[in-house]
Design brief:
This protein is of the alpha+beta class. Helix content is about 40%, strand content about 15%.
């Protein structure tokens, strides 16, 4: 992989590149902007922010997916807290310090004033944990720094801490063209940048097709407009050449799916497969699904998907567990079966292998591209990709 491609992969797989944290990479990216700026602007239609503190590629998807959320967040409360903290930091200049107790009061008062459905109660352990998750996220992105911490907030509601702002909080959220107070659904936010433009022709159609491919794990005909499908079919060769040049991946098109197959060395840990142990189990469930197709126990529809009842999918997951349980980590060996099934289901949904409907689940063809198996001579614990036990 050439140097410029590695730099673009970094921008694609990370929120931003901060000069203070990684000055060598920052200047490499900045000095080579001309190499991939055209791809970012004319193919993805994405905004590239370059200043003397950071470089950020704004990755707005064509269609939002569950896995595009903040990976460490697990509930709505954490998102509520995050944006209130950003409001708190909005007018604070770089290096200004603040204490935890003041922030707690601000979060509670703001949530109450705005009459939000969820107002944090710091006497509740889970609410305190949610705040810690948010603060850790902001620390990882270098938006705040910990100056001093007295006791852990999860253990003591009276804990105190001193933080320092880095001045980057105002760059966390993208700028909007329209009035977001009038927006009523996710599509309003996604399409904000294309206000008063025809999304089915010209530049916007091209942007959306490339975003489907580059910003998603896979794109299905359910997600694509007829105009986007037409563009993919007509220009598949040039699209593949362009994407292969900048990302070292190859475009694969089937009747119902478009996805990029990446060189293994380009894979990031938050892609699928990743470093979570549940990844290994999902790969085995995917293989079990394919085996049932081969045995004619499951039948593909004309659009390469399979509609199954909840009972059928649960049975597949339970059978997979029974067959491979000896290779699982202690965490998954001892997990109650119903909880195990729902955790696998949740992960299958998160990475768009399945979608849930009232009558059951629709299985998508991406399962055929991501499967796993246990070698016959494997006597070790299941660890196909170095998965962590319960992260």
């Amino acid at each position: 992989m050439d140097i410029q491609t590695r730099e673009l992969e970094y921008l694609l797989n990370n929120y931003w590149c901060i000069k203070e944290n990684n000055p060598i990479l920052y200047f490499k990216i900045k000095n080579n902007l001309d190499y991939y700026k055209d791809f970012i602007q004319t193919k993805l239609g994405s905004r590239l922010i370059v200043n003397d503190r950071f470089i950020k590629l704004e990755k707005i998807p064509a269609v939002p997916k569950i896995y595009m959320g903040i990976s460490s967040f697990t509930n709505k409360m954490e998102y509520v807290i995050l944006f209130i903290v950003l409001l708190f930091l909005e007018d604070k200049p770089k290096l200004e310090q603040f204490i935890l107790s003041n922030l707690l009061d601000y979060i509670t008062n703001t949530a109450t004033t705005l009459e939000l459905d969820e107002v944090p109660n710091w006497n509740v352990l889970n609410h305190r944990k949610s705040l810690v998750v948010v603060m850790n996220h902001l620390k990882e992105l270098n938006i705040i720094k910990v100056v001093e911490e007295i006791n852990l907030f999860t253990e003591d509601v009276r804990a105190e801490a001193l933080y320092e702002t880095t001045g980057l909080s105002n760059y966390y959220v993208r700028e909007f063209k329209g009035n977001i107070l009038e927006y009523t659904g996710m599509s309003d936010y996604i399409n904000d940048e294309f206000i008063n433009q025809n999304e089915n022709v010209g530049d916007v159609r091209r942007y959306k097709v490339y975003r489907h491919l580059v910003y998603s794990l896979a794109a299905f005909t359910d997600d694509l407009s007829e105009f986007e499908i037409d563009y993919l079919r007509k220009f598949r060769t040039s699209i593949n050449n362009e994407i292969n040049k900048y990302t070292l991946s190859d475009l694969e098109l089937t009747k119902n799916m478009a996805l990029l197959l990446y060189d293994e060395e380009t894979k990031e840990k938050f892609d699928f497969p990743n470093n979570k142990a549940i990844t290994d189990i999902v790969l085995l469930v995917n293989k079990a699904i394919l085996d049932r197709i081969d045995n004619n126990d499951l039948t593909l529809s004309d659009n390469e998907t399979i509609m199954v009842s909840k009972e059928v999918l649960y049975r597949i997951i339970k059978d997979t567990r029974e067959e491979y349980k000896m290779f699982f980590s202690k965490y998954y060996k001892e997990m109650v079966q119903d909880k195990f099934v729902m955790e696998v289901i949740s992960y299958l949904k998160e990475y768009d292998f399945i979608r849930e409907y009232e009558m059951g689940y629709r299985i998508y063809p991406s399962v055929s591209k991501m499967t796993g198996y246990i070698p016959k001579d494997n006597v070790e614990q299941l660890n196909l990709f170095g998965g962590l036990e319960n992260e």
